[in-house]
Amino acid sequence: MSLSYNMWHVVLTTYNLPPWICMKAEYLMLSLLIPGPQSPGKDMDVFLCPLIDELKELWVHGLDTRDAAYENGVFRMRAALLWTVNDFPARSSLSGWSGQGYRACPTCNEDTPSMRVIGKTTYFGHLRFLPTNHHWQSNLQFDGRTERKSPPRRFSTTDILEQLHREKTGIPGKHPNYGGVKRKRGDDELNWRKKSIFYELPYWVDIELKHNLDVMHIEKNMWDSLLGTLLADPHKSKDTDNARRDLAKLGIRQELHLFEDGNKLMKPAADYTFSEGNRRKFCRFIRSVKFPDGFASNLSKNVAQNDSRLLGLKSHDCHVIMQRLLPVGCRSLVSKNIWSTIVELCTFFKQLCASTVNVSDMVEAQKQLVLILCKLERIFPPAFFDIMIHLVLHLPEEAILGGPVHMRWMYPFERYLKRLKDYVRNAAKPEGSIAEGYVVDEALTFCSRYFDDVETRFNRPDRNDDGIHPTRQLSVFESQCKPLGKQSYVELDNNARDKAEFYILNNSPELEPYLK
After folding, report:
1. Which uninterrupted H or E stretch holds 317?
2. Which residues of 327-347 are buried (b: 16+ CB within 10 A; e: fewer)?
3. Is residue 314 classed as helix, strand or coil in its secondary structure?
4. Binning pLDDT at 50, 70 and 90, where does residue 286 land?
5. Of 274, 25, 249, whose CA–CA distance to 117 is shortest?
6. Number of H helices, E strands in the chain
7. Could you tell me which of 44, 58, 52, 50 has the C-alpha nearest to residue 89?
């Protein structure tokens, strides 16, 4: 199937199932399949109409459902849409708030901290989130000026609804009524492009957390920006020539400004990038790491031949390196203040992705995260801070509202989309292939639950059987793990042999009658 083909899948999951199964592929429901080849964009609501009608019926009237726990076997089931889980571009299509421009942050709304640099809009200026009269707000090392703005306001559901009421219903596209060009959005319209169809649900206006910020994509984008800049990757580094010109324009960090040496434009080395030798050390460290089976992929395959960069990392690979390896790998490769800031950032993501979340911990993490972003502003140029870096600031607040992130991120859905993509057998009709494959898989999954004498995905043994595998008659030789790979023989010297015999004689209950 062509990579340019764009198809949208609307997948539902039931949150009142046990948490260890509600995100399994067997319990996900493919409710809609929006055809391609182009993205629907603002017309997304047209395709969501059938789903919205059924959700309204489930909430208002309910549906008779059979359950053996009830006396007559039937009860009235009602269902509600709790929230949506999607990446940031899809959030714009679903919510109606554009994720581009000076007000790209849907949480900060019209108070989004942003500024224009060469060639892009950057979301720089997190000093606003510090307590009033914080000593950093008068420090000129951040952007060359003092911060006098008050922290961004917190917009309630009522405030959002009032903004939507001010939204003007216009004709999309380049219409002749507007002189053949796109209609410019007024200042009072903010970044709203439409009123989402989800507001037709009677309870939607009162839900505080409507659209989740996806931790998976935010962490992946943070990793790409951070590691690309540390490794001076020419394709992913944010330390570009324009980024250095931004520093000169703001009048800060003169030691990093570009300068001319004869006919050449020279770029001073920054302390936030690895030297050539340190890049090789870090890549060799990543190449040498071994993980337990199933914990992560083989990262040695992602290290370039010349040990200068990492290639082809998946989202989960970045997740593992960000939380497990980066704090250790860069400890001796950068200065202490840069390393400590990176460690604090990695520790936050590790705390956020824990299986249990404490509200008091998230409140404290919110305060610390503001300091971490301010420290990053003193280290990296303003061009480093795209919208995905800024969205990290709002993750603790959403964790307080929605709970642990493993119930609200895209990992299970991305894996499920991979399964749906594998259903495609006719590249000319991918939608039909997916629909037919989904129906067949649902039928086989249902039937397999009643097959006791046939190996299915529900009764087959685990990939790694952790049962006891006795290899000798003595209990001291019982293994708690399954051996893998080829056997190897080791010849012991006399000293090691005496120690081994002493250990066996003193730790084998079967030999106690002979030792008395």
Report:
1. helix 315-320
2. bebbeebbeeebbebbbbbbe
3. coil
4. very high
5. 249
6. 16, 10
7. 44
Report the SS3 class of residue 479.
strand
Encoded tokens for 219: 């962490």
> Residue 249: CA atoms inside 13 Å, Cβ hemisphere, count?
13
222 closest CA partner among 405, 400, 391: 391
Confidence class for position 461, pLDDT limits 50, 70, 90: confident
Tokens describing residue 50 = 């059938």
The predicted model gives 248-263 an average pLDDT of 91
Region 426-432: mean pLDDT is 90
97 phi and psi, to 5 degrees?
-95, 120
- In one letter, which amino acid is 293? D
The three-class DSSP label of residue 396 is helix
Q: Identify the burial level of 396 via C-beta atoms within 10 angstroms of its C-beta, where 0-12 means exposed, 13-18 middle and 19 or more buried.
A: buried
Tell me, what amino acid is at 511? Answer: L
Mapped onto helix, strand or coil, the DSSP state of residue 462 is coil
> Distance between CA 130 and CA 371 in Å, rounded?
8
- DSSP E strand boundaries for 67-196: 74-77, 84-86, 115-117, 120-122
Does residue 482 have a pLDDT over 80?
Answer: no
Which amino acid does the sequence have at 309?
Answer: R
Q: Scanning the structure block, which residue is given the tokens 């571009």?
A: 89
Residues 27 and 41: their CA atoms lie apart, in Å, by 28
Phi/psi at 117 (5° precision): -120, -175
Reduced to 3 states, what is the DSSP secondary structure of residue 335? coil
Residue type, 286: I
d(CA 504, CA 512): 11
For CA atoms 449, 453, 457, 463, the dihedral sign is: positive
Q: What percent of the chain has pLDDT over 90?
A: 64
Q: Output DSSP code: residue 64.
A: E
* pLDDT exceeds cutoff 70 at 172: no
Closest residue by Cα to residue 28 from 458, 443, 425, 417 = 417
* DSSP label at residue 303: B
3-state secondary structure of 254: helix
Both ends of the chain: CA-CA distance in Å?
Answer: 75
Q: In which element (H, E) is residue 213 found? A: strand 211-213
Most distant pair of Cα atoms in the chain: their distance? 104
CB atoms within 10 A of CB 268: 13
What six digits make up the tokens of 232?
């001076």
Q: How many CB atoms are closer than 10 A to CB 401?
A: 14
